[in-house]
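Page 42, continued from yesterday. The earlier attempt failed because a stray header line got pasted into the input along with the sequence. Redoing it now with the clean sequence only.
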Amino acid sequence: MRSAASSAVARDADGTRAILERFLKSCRNPCLFEPGEELLPLKPDNFSMESKDNRLTIQAWSDTRNIVRRIVSVSAERRGRLELVVERFARATGPMFLIDMGRADSQETGRRGGRLVFRERFRRFLTREFPSWKLSEISAEPDLEHSLSPAFSRAFLRKGNSGVAAIAATPAGMDSAFLLSFGLIWLDYLRRREPRLTIERLVLFLPVGAEQLTCHRVLYLDPQRLRCDVFAYSPEDFALRVDPKDYGNLDTKLEVFRRVAPVAQAWVDRLKDLPEVECVENNGGAVSLRVHGIEFARTSGSELLFGLQKRAAAREHNLPEIERLATELVVLRSHHGDGPMYRQDPEEWLASQMRANVDALDATLRRAPIYSQAPACLGGQRGLIDLLGVDFSGRLVVIELKASQDIHLPLQALDYWMRVKWHLDREEFSANGYFPGIELRKDAPKMLLVSPALDFHPTSEIILRFFSPAVEVERIGVGANWREKLQVMFRMRGAESPF
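This time it went through. Structure tokens are written below.
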């Protein structure tokens, strides 16, 4: 006969099984998750539960894994999530979770699980590549206070009085192009946190095929401030140190600048004289007509296309209609307004204000020509407005505009600066019809970062501190009422602080 104690355990095991069965029945997409392991989807044909000798055991399997755990207890139950205490080898206990990935609020748990899995891969990379170093810290958790993203696993290694900051991009996570920003922030944080150590090196791990852009950027960091090592890892976890100098060609293209076709020029001349209409020449021969950054008409070959959502080819009798459209946009884009049209494309609005008030922004800049995205990044849109101008001495000036906080502004601006320098070194701007009649200097371009004064991300100074002296940067903060009047609130060189 079973003892009272055994009977109680048996009832607990049966009750636990009932809870699990009820939970799994309610799930649309049940998955099993253990910290540090990949999610394992549960289907009727790949898991089982067994009650034997007052013990409840769950077994789940896939093509690559087999999990057998004794369930000790249910520690918490909530919608879409069951937290269990399980017994592993050598009677060690730990957490395990059943999660309904069919619920939207479970997606973050799945993402966190993936980050923890990659963290362990990262640990293996570091152990193999730095066998004589002590891994003091490794994390895939967020640290919002210090602007550290959970999307990239980070680590700190020590040996004697020396330290190494390391960071890694997952194969299918946040864009690997963001890795270097967070790597520089991590390095700076460790240097401030560990003042007694010498932390000279930043180590970056990226998936094979995603390392090119980072390698190009690394070449324009200051070697006096840091040593930067780049590793590319394969799906089989083979990591190879790469030389950034081996990545020669940039993904950039400079189109021949063509002038607008004469047939449409008369209509363009009529429309651009309307109040608050801006006429912007694009490479390829197109002309864009805009009101505070919103395009309402553009040339295409010998035609003029007009409209906001859908474009139609204009005829002579359409001109009054196009003029009314421009007038309506002036009202909708008024700095006293509100609504979707007012909030649309703030960077384009800021760019139009800058072009109209170049003198207020930088008195050394020529008012014209100013080109938008002259060298094109072959990867497509980058989320920023790239402008290229020239000062009165003939030096090119790269202008990056952002109307809101962006932690990646400095490095994304560097991307465009590199492309401009690439074409300048090959004397391609004048040869392709840009800056007619202006003799361009061969000096590296100057970079201007323009944003509302309160919307520069606090880490901008940290990242700029690591730029090479060859990259001359100036940050310009404009007033919050820039839609009404472009007014410079501060002007700082490089990593200088305005406060």
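Notes: The longest helix spans residues 4-26.
Reminder to self: strip header lines before submitting.
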